Amino acid sequence: MQLYSDIGRKMLAHLTFTILRAREMMYLTPMTELITAVTIAQQYLNKIPS
Fold first, then answer.
1. Range of the domain at 26
2. How far is CA 39 from CA 1, 5, 19, 45, 46, in A?
3. Would the pTM of this model clear 0.70, i.e. be above it?
């Protein structure tokens, strides 16, 4: 269980950093931002064995 919470925290930190970074550089509109967040989250979740 500890491993999963660690992965979750890293995923969240990476996701937040990516979105803030992209917004800072003004690359993303809010809709693209949402899609990007979902895509990144799905990629991470696919790596976690169910």
1. 7-44
2. 24, 20, 12, 10, 11
3. no
